[in-house]
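Structure first, sequence second, as always.
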């Protein structure tokens, strides 16, 4: 299981269900190297989305909506580096090449003068691909913007080799307290070999949540247990870190 996020501590909401699966061959990692990248500094203000797009990157998605509830249309931009140097050859198994180009999530608010002001430029929440046996963590519709300026991001962990446990982490953000604040978190986890399941849902605005554990082979309904967070810090998007490794504490 991934490590707990330092901001929220190390007390996990559920036990690890990870069970060993067939591992890659011992010589797989020989010659396999993830190139180093330098993340560019983005413009602080601009008249349109292209003002924030750095050279050597491509825009994958643009979402428009009123994030700060001032009646103006703000932007959420998803960028990905487009460097051929980051498409590496695999030493064995699977596809011949593996794209390690990193992602960047940008949020810009529209000011009264019509210009956009960048408030987020994050390349950690959506982790850079570094494991060829981990499927694309961004499923279709993974990034969405609700009518009330609520931003949602879903990340999936599924290994084709090296582990049976899979999970989905869904983050809900809202512009509040001067940042894109984490207001909700949902996780659904399953051990594909044993059928064990674990779910958790947290509302950071109320400091309340629920969790449940079960087995998808059992027909009886799973019991849900409510809890209240002992600490409920304001966590901004940039403080979450790697979204696949995030595990909240209570």
């Amino acid at each position: 299981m991934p490590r707990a996020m330092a901001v929220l501590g190390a007390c996990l909401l559920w036990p690890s269900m990870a069970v060993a699966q067939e591992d890659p061959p011992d010589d797989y990692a020989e010659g396999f190297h993830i190139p180093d990248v330098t993340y560019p500094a983005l413009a602080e203000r601009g008249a349109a989305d292209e003002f924030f797009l750095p050279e050597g990157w491509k825009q994958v998605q643009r979402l428009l909506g009123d994030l700060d509830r001032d009646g103006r249309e703000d932007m959420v931009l998803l960028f990905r580096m487009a460097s051929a140097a980051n498409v590496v050859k695999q030493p064995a198994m699977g596809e011949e090449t593996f794209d390690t180009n990193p992602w960047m999530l940008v949020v810009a608010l529209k000011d009264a003068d019509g210009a956009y002001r960048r408030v987020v430029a994050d390349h950690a929440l959506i982790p850079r691909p570094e494991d060829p046996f981990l499927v694309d963590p961004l499923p279709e519709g993974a990034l969405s913007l609700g009518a009330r300026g609520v931003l949602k991001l879903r990340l999936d962990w599924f290994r084709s080799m090296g582990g049976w446990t899979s999970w989905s982490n869904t983050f809900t953000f809202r512009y509040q307290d001067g940042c894109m604040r984490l207001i909700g978190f949902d996780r659904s986890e399953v051990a594909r070999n044993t059928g064990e399941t674990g779910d958790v849902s947290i509302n950071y605005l109320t400091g309340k949540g629920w969790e449940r554990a079960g087995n998808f082979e059992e027909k009886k309904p799973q019991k849900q247990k409510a809890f209240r967070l002992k600490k409920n810090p304001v966590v901004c998007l940039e403080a979450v870190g790697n979204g696949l490794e995030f595990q909240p504490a209570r």
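Margin note: The radius of gyration is 20 Å.
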